[in-house]
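Example (one chain per record):
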Amino acid sequence: MSKGKLIFVCLITIIFIILGYVKYKNIQEKKSKEMPPEKPGGKTIKADAIVVQYTKLDNEISSNGNILAQDEVQLQPEVSGRVIQLNIQEGSMVSKGTLLMKISDADLRAQLGKVKSQLAVAQSNVKRLSELLKINGVSQSDYDLAENQVSTLKADMVLLEVQIAKTELRAPFTGKLGLRNISVGAYVTPNTIIATIQNIHQLKLDLSIPERYAGLVQKGNKMDCTVDGISAPFQSQVIATDPQIDANTRNLKVRAVILNPNTHLIPGSYVRVALKLNETPDAIMIPSNAIIPDDKANKVVVVENGKAQFVPLTLGIRSSSDVQVLNGLKIRDTVLVTGLLQAKPNMNIKINKIVSTNPTKSN
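Predicted structure:
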């Protein structure tokens, strides 16, 4: 085929394509003119709903915590040296002030003996000079120097006694000893951890709660606690909270004291805690699945005169399935719990069924 014929065929083909496209557009425009426009809100959807009513809310926060001893210390010596005595019976109870470990102090005691001898001589010298001073047999300055020497030796003796006392490790309080890490003859330094001691006569626990509950927790609140492996639950009572919320976790640290602890509770145990708060007799609770999250505000779909209305909410305490509404709803409002994705403002809503709601506890 010659080049001229090829160009002619291409032009004819392009013309037919353009004419076909124009005809198709005319047909589509004709159909759109003949079809009546859809009225706003003309579409109807079926959905389930709830009727808002007051609910008695037993405020209860569930959290996890750890049991702590009232006092806990790692036993470490104040000075370095060789251990010559060890009185640590692992797992036993000891009284405050009990000698637990002794480091060799032979050199210090030798120095103390030397200072005591020097002190005795110095005191005799002061006594002799005092008699001479009465008859002007010695100058006042010589007597003052002798007295100063006595004072210096007494100070040296006190210093040595303090250093000797530091070679003894005593129980800082009455408590239970842990496992020891050394034996007699070991060389220890102030960085050596000899053992631990815990005061387990009174136990406490620490837990963290979300910041939205910070204003509800007060000193004196009771908590029900359970520990794995122990069937009997026990109670604790809030004694203090941190003065500020943790900036990283957005949680508030709470400390409680365990009431009537049993002998099976061990510091460090993982505890499940239920913190009871004040009851709210007239709370408005709706299912969590009725909430439509939004960047600006959480919303629900309220049916008014058969039409869908999107209402912003202020939320409060949450439970496993429900959430408290502080502002935005009133009693006997009808709130959709299904069909939320299909609902549009002012759309016709046909209620399929009313879902019943049950009282709930927050956590």
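Caption: Residues 198 and 291 are 49 Å apart (CA to CA).
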